Amino acid sequence: MRLRLALLLCLLTAAACAAAQTTLTETPEQRDKRMRWFREARFGMFIHWGLYAIPAGEWNGKPVPGLGEWIMNSARLTVEDYEPLVHRFNPVQFSAREWVRIAKSAGMKYIVITSKHHDGFCLFDAKNSDYDVMATPFRRDILKELAAECRKAGIRLCFYHSIMDWHHPDYLPRRPWDRRPADTASFPRYVAYMKEQLRQLVQDYGPLGILWFDGEWENTWTHELGKDLYAYVRSLQPDVIVNNRVDKGRRGMQGMSAPEFAGDYGTPEQEVPPEGLPGVDWESCITMNDTWGVKKNDNNWKSSAHLIRMLSDIASKGGNLLLNVGPTAEGLIPAPSVERLADMGRWMKVNGESIYGTTASRIGKPAWGRSTTKGNRIYLLVFDWPSDGVLRVEALPGTPRKASLLAAKRTGIPLRQDGSAWLLTVPAQPPDSPVSVIAIELTRPSMSMRTGTGEKPHD
Ligand code: GLC
Fold it and tell me: Is residue 97 scored above 80 in pLDDT?
């Protein structure tokens, strides 16, 4: 009997390993298929939300320096100090439908929300924790509501799940001011706890677009654990995309990993790689002001024009923009964020075809702006409209058949050749702002700077 049981166990383990293996050893075609929606989406919404929205950057009436979602750490709070916030979390103005509407009308194709941030609080009905939204006066499963609205709207739902956890008794290392004993803690038990939560998130809220890990830098997290976690979540949902912070390979805020590390794409933080990252998938995560989780006194908002140019710049280098909002304790996305997203949405409605599904183009970073490509089209994203009415385009990767403005009802634009360059006679005034887009149709498909080709963009 015992032998039979052991045999069965062996077979089961072998089957589980084989399942994990098949998902990990995919062909380039299989990988392209899995990454396809991500590469086409180009624009997503990051949402940092949790208990830290209540203090919103202030503790005992005093401003705390640093990021809003880091207040527990920055103000050196113990679990006893911070945990009671759970009894005050009551975002009565929260509407999943409204949040999804705001993201969708901005032109965003996916949402990455904090299922659990570093403070350990879970924004969902966690079956293995009482430190979750069901323990608050609000008692509504926020992630369930978002999952339903995302499904209706065709937006991919993704979760940011922190590896670092300042609340769980088994997580190590302890903060220096945390007086809870560490000798009874078991890191493997913490890993099992986290995996069980991920199972719930994938199976009860999925299918998910991305699992976005973070907080991997502490010394308890190892390359082995990273590889194992990657394989685990892919075995739960084989086509899920996993960011590179699952493993230890991220090199600073530039966020790229060497191939031996697990993770499907690089995560530059608060920066756009100057030359893009040819040959790899990547996504820059960027805040609209200077914090991820809301802070009462952070009004350092980037302008809509800046954000639209940033999205154009990122697309021209073959990456995605994951743009953050930090909702308030009442459940509202702050008005300055909503205004900026509406501006981006207006621009995307007219010019979105120069962003979605495009790849970095060979003409890369011309003096007047940026460019992207798709099929036999090149899009010129013009930041600085020529004052003499002539736009000079060097090194077009083919012969242009026609050119037109995406704004101004696709008005045609005359083209003439000047040596190796093409000259476009454009209207005196830019037809759109802050970026006007000209689509050029080539007689043959353009040679694109596809991610995966390993070529370098031109400067
Ligand atoms: C940093 C911060 C974290 C934030 C993240 C977003 O890693 O620790 O608070 O969630 O950046 O990329």
Answer: yes
Reported as a single tens digit per residue, the pLDDT across 116-130 is: 999 999 999 999 999
Q: How many CB atoms lie within 10 A of CB 154?
A: 9
Give the Å distance between the CA of 431 and the centre of ligand 1: 38
Determine the distance from the C-alpha atom of residue 449 to the mean position of all C-alpha atoms in its chain, rounded to a whole number: 22
Q: Which regions of the chain carry the CATH code 3.20.20.80? A: 2-354
DSSP state, 303? P
**H or E, element range at 79:** helix 79-82
Q: Is 455's C-beta closer than 6 angstroms to any atom of ligand 1?
A: no
DSSP one-letter string for 321-371: EEEEE---TTS---HHHHHHHHHHHHHHHHHGGGTTT-EE-TT-S-TTEEE
Measured in angstroms, how far is the CA atom of residue 402 from the centroid of ligand 1? 45
Q: Which atom of ligand 1 is nearest to the CA of 245?
A: 7
Query: How far does residue 160's CA lie from ligand 1's centre (Å)?
Result: 10
3-state secondary structure of 111: strand
Ligand 1 pocket, residue 281 CB under 6 Å: no
Instruction: Evaluate: CB of 269 within 6 angstroms of ligand 1.
Output: yes
pTM of the complete model: 0.92
Looking at the DSSP assignment, which residues form a beta bridge with residue 110? 44, 156
* CA angle centred on 145, ends 143 and 148, rounded to 5°: 105
**Superfamily assignment of 2-354 in CATH?**
Glycosidases (3.20.20.80)
Q: What is the pLDDT of residues 228-273, one digit of tens each?
A: 999 999 999 999 999 999 999 987 667 777 788 999 999 999 999 9
Helix (H, G, I), strand (E, B) or coil at 424: strand
Looking at the chain, the domain(s) classified CATH 2.60.40.1180 span 369-450
CATH topology of domain 369-450: Immunoglobulin-like (2.60.40)
